[in-house]
# Entry
Amino acid sequence: MLMFRPMAALAALAMLGGPTHGAQAQTEAQAEPARPVTIDVDAGTTVGSLPPVWRFFGADEPNYATMKDGRKLLSELGKLKSGQVYFRAHNLLSSGDGTPAFKWGSTNAYTETEDGKPVYDWTIVDGIIDTYLARGVRPYLQIGFTPEAMSSASAGTPYQHLWRPGFDYGLVATGWAYPPRDYEKWGELVYQWTRHNVERYGAEEVATWYFEVWNEANSPYYWKGSPEDFYKLHDHAIAGVRRALPNARVGGADTAGPGGSFMDGFLKHVSSGRNHATGETGTPTDFLSFHAKGRPTFVDGHVRMGLATHLRGTDEGFTKMLSVPSLATKPVVIGESDPEGCAACPGPQNAYRNGTMYSSYTAASFARIWELAAKRKVNLEGVLSWSFEFEDQPWFAGYRQLSTNGVDLPVLNVFRMFAQLGETRLKAASDAQVPLESVMKDGVLGAADIGTIATRTADGKVALLVWHYHDDDVAGPDAAVTIALRGLKAAPATAQLWRVDRDHGNAFAAWQKMGSPQSPDEKQYGQLEAASRMQAEALTVKKAARGAATLEMRLPRQGVALVVLDAK
# Structure
C-alpha cells in the first residue's frame, strides 16, 4: 500500500493555518453583532418534491471498503437510507492482488492462460460487494478498467501507475486505461461477471443496481482510445450485462464535466447510432450521467471556494441531457459532484476539507442543484459525492473524505441531516438567501448566503434545513435566525435541533483543542468520536397565533442546522 505521509502531514498543517481556525478570529467574529435573518415557512403549501439525490457516494480505491475504517464508514452510510444508498468505485476489474493505493485498487477478476483462454476469479470483487450489501449499501457498478491480460497498451507500458500526492496527475494513465485488444472477450467478461452476480445475489437484487461503463472517457487521464473506441467498449459491455440480466439498469457515460463534443457524440450514438455489439440501432439507456466539480483557489491567505463553477457545470450537463428528445426524460445521475476534482490531492486550495467549510458548501451546493433540476425540469435521480476515506493515513490529513481513522468529519453530518428531510417540499423563503442566478454568476463573495429548504416528512413532521455559507473561508458574524411558521394544524412546545458548526458535530475542532495528536490514545479516540456526533437539542417554539409559530436560533458562519417539528 502506498503511503506518502510527508505530503499528507503538510496538508494537515495547511488545514491548521487557516484564518477561520484561529481562536482570535473566532472570538472577534463572535463579538460582532449577529446578522438578523428571517425565514418564512408555509407548512400548508407544497411546492413540489425533493428527491433524495444525496444518497450516492464513491471512491477511486475500491479495496478500502473491506478494510476496518472503510467497513465502519460504509455502515454509517447504509444507516442513512438502508437499501437506497449507492456506492460507485473505480478499478473493479483492474488486475492486481487487491492491495489499495492512492487512486488505485484491483480485484484480479480476469487473467488468461498461456494459450489465451479466460480465467475468471470473483473472490476479491465479491468481497467488496458483500461488504456493501451487508451494510445496507448497493453498487453503482462501474465496469472498468481493462484487465492487464486484455490491455492493448504497447510493450513496456506499465500496467499499474505509481502516482501519489504531489506527483503529476498525468502519471495515472498507464496500461489499465487502454482499450481491450479483443472487444468480444471484453463483452464476455462483463457477461460472465453479471451472470455470476445474478447467481450470487439474485436477479431481483441485481436489478436494483446501476451499471455504467468506465470513468471520464473524455479525459486523457482515464481513456487512451478514441471516442468511437469508447462507444464500442460501452456497447459490448452493455450487451454483456443485458444478456445476463435483460432488465438491468444501464446507462452512462459519466464524463468529466458535461462532456463537450464527446457527450454529444455519445448521446447521438446511444439514441440513433449503430450498436457495435448487436448491429441494432442505439444502445439501451436507462439513465444518463456526467460529472460536475467546483474550483477552489487560495486567495489572500485563505481558501475561496468555487461554487459558481460547480453550478455552471451542473447546468451545462443538464442542458446536454435534455438535448436529445428521446433521452430527455431519462433519470439523470451526476456521477461525481464535488467542490473540486481530486480527493487524494492535497494543497492550500484544498484546505477546506476537515472543517465546516466542506459541510456548509455541501448544504449550499445540494440546495442549488435541487433548484436547478426543478428549473430545467430534469429528472434528477442522484448526486454522487466522490468522497469516502483513506485507510491508515495521518489524522485529518486533508484529503476529501467523510471520515479520518474511523472518526466522522463534519460533512458526514450534513448527509445525516439530508436523511431526515422529507420528500415533499414546502413553501419557504429566507430574506438572506442569495438568488440562484447570482450564485451561478458570481458565487457567494458579498453577503453570506443564509438559506433554507423546508419539507414535510412521510410521518407528517416539518423538517427545515438552514445553512450559513460563504465562499471565503474567513471568520464572520453569526446569524440571528428567526423562523416564522404558518399553516400549522398544531405546534408543539419544542422542536428538535441538530447542528454542525464550530462547536457542534465537529471532531476536527475537538482534535485541534487536544493539541492535534497524531496518535490519539483510547480515551482521546472516544472523545473524538463523541465530538463528531450531532446531539439533538430542544428548541423552544413560541406560538404567535393559531396555526402559526416562531423559533429563534443562532447560526455561526459556515454552520448548518436542521429543525424538526412534530407539527402534523
Notes: Residues 492 and 567 are 6 Å apart (CA to CA). The chain has two domains: 22-46+423-493+541-565, 51-420.
